[in-house]
Amino acid sequence: MKVSNKIRALRETKDMTQTELANAVNINRSVLNRIENGSRPLRDDELKELARFFNVSTDYLLGNYGQTSTYDDKERQLVNLYRVLNDADKQHIFYMLDRLAAPKLAHA
Questions:
Q1: Distance between CA 59 and CA 20 in Å, rounded?
Q2: Residues lower than pLDDT 70 in the chain
Q3: Span 2-20, pLDDT tens digits
């Protein structure tokens, strides 16, 4: 997935408009629109600010997972999905994982 599509998907997951995101990361809305449309590349400072705002790595936005990653594609997908959740949903996921894993860990 292209960086432009990732930014749009992250923004939409947070149910934000382009104007809201642009204001949150101090980017002009028309610039953000061109970034999301892929007609303007991200500057380094914009990349860092968007990664910080969405609580993802710049490598995630750029699609650079590297050759040494110990995560398979499914694990990476789970991490990326988790990162876009709100705090209440993250707590719910932890609760569910704890309930599912506890019996298996007890027998390990």
A1: 24
A2: 65-71, 108
A3: 899 999 999 998 899 999 9
Classify domain 3-62 by CATH number: 1.10.260.40
CB under 8 A, 24+ apart: contacts of 3-7? 3/42, 3/47, 3/61, 3/62, 3/63, 4/35, 4/36, 4/37, 4/38, 5/38, 6/60, 6/61, 6/63, 7/35, 7/36, 7/50, 7/61
Q: Model pTM greater than 0.85?
A: no
- For residue 26, which phi and psi values (nearest 5 degrees)? 60, 50
